[in-house]
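User: Just a sanity check before I run the rest of the batch. Below are the C-alpha cells for the first item. I only need the designed sequence back.
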C-alpha cells in the first residue's frame, strides 16, 4: 500500500480513484473497482494514514466531498509520485461534483456535467421531471422563512420541506399547519448548517413540496450505459412515522419488482437528467390510490446496504457494474433483467433516547436463522438521539430468506425487539 509519505512513489502506477469509498456500506466498492479496472485502486481519505483503509492500493490524503480540495489533493499526489488517475468513480452524493472536477482536469470518462448538476440540485432535477411530463410533487424554492410563507400559499397543507442540496432524509420534514411550518423550517435550516460548511454547499437553498398521501416508498436501482439502461432492482423502503422520513430498513426484491409501470418511470427519470453511465438510485412514492410519484434521482450507488442486499439475491456486485459503465464507453450489460433468488432485508438498530449505559451482547446468543449479520456501531456511554435521520442509528441487522419472509415488517419488528434488549439506556 502506498501513502503520500511513502518512499516508493516512483513505483506507483496510474490509478483508478474511488471517491467516498470510506463511507458506510461502501466496503465492497474496492473489490468491484478492482474487477472493473486493470489499474491499482486508490481512495481519498481526510485522515490519510490515520485509521487508513487497508484494502486500497493507494491512499491519497484529501477531502473527497469538496471539489477544489479533492482536485488539489490529486494534483499534489501527482507532483509527489508522478501517478495520476486514469478513471474516477463517485460512490456517494457528495463525491459527484469532486469527481466531475477531477475528470474534467484529467480528461477522463465521467457522468455528464448536467447530470451531476441536476442530481445535486433537487430543484433543477424536479423541474426536468415536470418538463418531461413525469409525475412528481409540485414544488417551489425558498431561502428564508418569509419566502417560505409566500411560496406556501401555492399549496394546501400538509407540505414537505427539504434541502435542495442534500440527501439521506436529512432535513426533510412535514408541516400540517402554520405552527408546524415554523418548526419544520427551523429543522430543515438547522440540518444544513454543518453539512453546508463541510461540503461547500449553500446553507439556504430549500424547497417546499406538495404532500403525497402515501405509506409506500420504494427505490429503483438503474444501471445506465451508452447503449441503454437496465433495471437492477426494485427495493421496498421502510420509513419512520411523519413528520420525519428517516429510513429504518429495506427489502429486496420489492413488491413492485415486476411492475412495468414502475420500471418505465425509473428509466424515464434517468433519461430526464441525461444519465448515460453509472448506477442510479431512483426514489418513488406510491400514493394510496396506487399512483407513482418521482421523488428524486441520486446519480450514485444506493446506500444503507442495499448494494449488498442486491448481491445476496442476484450474485452481482453492482459497484463493479457502476465502475465498468463509467470507465468504458463500450460497456454493455447483456442481462436485460436480473432474476433474484430469495429475499434479503436490512433493518437498523435504535436505542431509546438517552445515555447508553450497557450493550447487552449476551442477548445475541440465540438468533433467528434468517439473520446473516449484525453490526453494532454504538458504544457504551454514547448519547442516543431521536430517530429523525440516519445519524440516530446504533447499528444494523441483515437477513436472508430462500423464500418469502414471514411478513413485510418482520425484519423491522425483529430489529426493534433486539434493540430493546440490547441497549440499556439511562
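Assistant: Here's the designed sequence for the first item:
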Amino acid at each position: 500500500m502506498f501513502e503520500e509519505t511513502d518512499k516508493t512513489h516512483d513505483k506507483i502506477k496510474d490509478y483508478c480513484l474511488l471517491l467516498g469509498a470510506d463511507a458506510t456500506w461502501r466496503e465492497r466498492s474496492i473489490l468491484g473497482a478492482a474487477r472493473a479496472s486493470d489499474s491499482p485502486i486508490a481512495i481519498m481519505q481526510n485522515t490519510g494514514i490515520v485509521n487508513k483503509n487497508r484494502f486500497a492500493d493507494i491512499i491519497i490524503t484529501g477531502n473527497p466531498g469538496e471539489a477544489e480540495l479533492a482536485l488539489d489533493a490529486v494534483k499534489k499526489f501527482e507532483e509527489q509520485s508522478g501517478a495520476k488517475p486514469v478513471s474516477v468513480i463517485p460512490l456517494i452524493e457528495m463525491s459527484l461534483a469532486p469527481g466531475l472536477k477531477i475528470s474534467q482536469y484529467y480528461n477522463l470518462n465521467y457522468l455528464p456535467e448536467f447530470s451531476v448538476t441536476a442530481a445535486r440540485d433537487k430543484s433543477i432535477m424536479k423541474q426536468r421531471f415536470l418538463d418531461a411530463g413525469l409525475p412528481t410533487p409540485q414544488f417551489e424554492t425558498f431561502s428564508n422563512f418569509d419566502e417560505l410563507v409566500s411560496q406556501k400559499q401555492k399549496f394546501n397543507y400538509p407540505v414537505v420541506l427539504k434541502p435542495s442540496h442534500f440527501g439521506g432524509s436529512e432535513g426533510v420534514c412535514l408541516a400540517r399547519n402554520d405552527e408546524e411550518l415554523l418548526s419544520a423550517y427551523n429543522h430543515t435550516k438547522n440540518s444544513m448548517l454543518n453539512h453546508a460548511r463541510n461540503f461547500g454547499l449553500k446553507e439556504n437553498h430549500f424547497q417546499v413540496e406538495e404532500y403525497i398521501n402515501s405509506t409506500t416508498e420504494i427505490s429503483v436501482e438503474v444501471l445506465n450505459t451508452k447503449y441503454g439502461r437496465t433495471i437492477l432492482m426494485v427495493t421496498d423502503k421502510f420509513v419512520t412515522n411523519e413528520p420525519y422520513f428517516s429510513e429504518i430498513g429495506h427489502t429486496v426484491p420489492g413488491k413492485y419488482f415486476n411492475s412495468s409501470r414502475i420500471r418505465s418511470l425509473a428509466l424515464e427519470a434517468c433519461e430526464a437528467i441525461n444519465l448515460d453511465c453509472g448506477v442510479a438510485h431512483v426514489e418513488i412514492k406510491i400514493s394510496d390510490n396506487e399512483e407513482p410519484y418521482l421523488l428524486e434521482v441520486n446519480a450514485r450507488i444506493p446506500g444503507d446496504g442495499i448494494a449488498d442486499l442486491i448481491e445476496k439475491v442476484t450474485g452481482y456486485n453492482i459497484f463493479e457494474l457502476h465502475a465498468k459503465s463509467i470507465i468504458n464507453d463500450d460497456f454493455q450489460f447483456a442481462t436485460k433483467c436480473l432474476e433474484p433468488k430469495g429475499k434479503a432485508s436490512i433493518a437498523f438498530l435504535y436505542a431509546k433516547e438517552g445515555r447508553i449505559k450497557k450493550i447487552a451482547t449476551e442477548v445475541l446468543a440465540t438468533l433467528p436463522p434468517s439473520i446473516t449479520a449484525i453490526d453494532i456501531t454504538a458504544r457504551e456511554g454514547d448519547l442516543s438521539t431521536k430517530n429523525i435521520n440516519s445519524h440516530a442509528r446504533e447499528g444494523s441487522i441483515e437477513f436472508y430468506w430462500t423464500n418469502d419472509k414471514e411478513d413485510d415488517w418482520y425484519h423491522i419488528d425483529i430489529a426493534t425487539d433486539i434493540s430493546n434488549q440490547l441497549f440499556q439506556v439511562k
